[in-house]
């Protein structure tokens, strides 16, 4: 039990730091990070569910993200260069996605 509590604290601190960094540095509203740097989910992930999750993150479609996670998209998936869906959400400054990830990660730790 101690391990999960410690992991929860670490994840919460990491999310706060990441969101704070994104807010302070900001991102251009006119162009997404993904198009600006030619990021494509399929270049980082093989799992179609994770690719769909990344696309939903890009579109800021919280309802679709929730559906994908409920249907088995792995929020803890590691792709090329240790990319994860959480890191995929980071560049475009999506605090609402980070909050959902915090919930999903907490749930996955208790499964």
Give the helix level as a range of percent. Answer: 55-70%
Top CATH class:
Mainly Alpha
CATH topology, what is it called? Serine Threonine Protein Phosphatase 5, Tetratricopeptide repeat
CATH arch. level architecture: Alpha Horseshoe
Strand segment tally: 0
- From N to C, what is the helix and strand string? HHHHHHH
Distance between the termini: 13 Å
Q: List the uncertain runs.
A: 23-30
Oligomer: single chain
Overall shape: globular
Query: Which structural class do you get from the secondary structure elements?
Result: mainly alpha
Strand content: under 5%
Number of separate helices = 7
- Rounded to an integer, what's the Rg over CA atoms? 14 Å
**Tally of distinct domains:** 1
Q: Outline the biggest β-sheet.
A: none
Mean pLDDT: 75
| CATH H-level superfamily title | Ankyrin repeat-containing domain
Characterise this structure.
With 111 residues, the protein is mainly α. It has a single domain (2-109), classed as Serine Threonine Protein Phosphatase 5, Tetratricopeptide repeat, CATH 1.25.40.20. The protein has helices spanning 2-25, 33-36, 41-44, 48-58, 62-70, 85-89, 95-109. The radius of gyration is 14 Å and the shape is globular.
